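re: ur question from yesterday

yeah so i grabbed the chain u mentioned. its 171 aa long if i counted rite. heres the sequnce exactly as i have it in my notes:
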Amino acid sequence: PEEAPMLLTVFADWLDKHGEPSAAGRARDLGRSSALGFEAVLPGPVGERNLYALHPRGRILLRPATREGLLGQMAAVLATGNTATVEGMDLPEGLPAKIAARFHANPGEFFAACLVEGDVQAVRGACDSAAKLPGPIVPVHVWTGHDTGPNGAWLLEEVSTSINTTAAGGN
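ran it thru and got these structure tokens back, copy pasting raw so excuse formatting
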């Protein structure tokens, strides 16, 4: 997760250099609005320390319909610190190796979510495919060109940790 902002910057710079300034701008916007790395200490009324944090979800299945959708979905994955597999399209030629490495197929790895771009038929197809995948239920989210939920929330996982400081020797 710590390298996510750097990778997104590399991707946005690459998009600028390859004549995709609007995609680069959207990528930077996603990076600025991402809640990746958010942490908060919550009240602990009985001597515990409670932490709330947002972490990457894991491997995301991308089902873009257009080049613009592909670039946007890739930016969303990078902005939220995830990795992904792209289905139905090839990655853009000449991507920096560090970026391309975040978008490779890894047989046997489960998907944490799916982003799909397209009409109702494309969404239904993605839902049908996701329902047949092994492992946990895969939430399917419609990609509208810029949206991954508030602050990238669809691609982030809530993690809460409670540490009993009294039992650990603290007060």
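noticed a couple things. The radius of gyration is 18 Å. also The longest strand covers residues 48-56.
anyway ttyl
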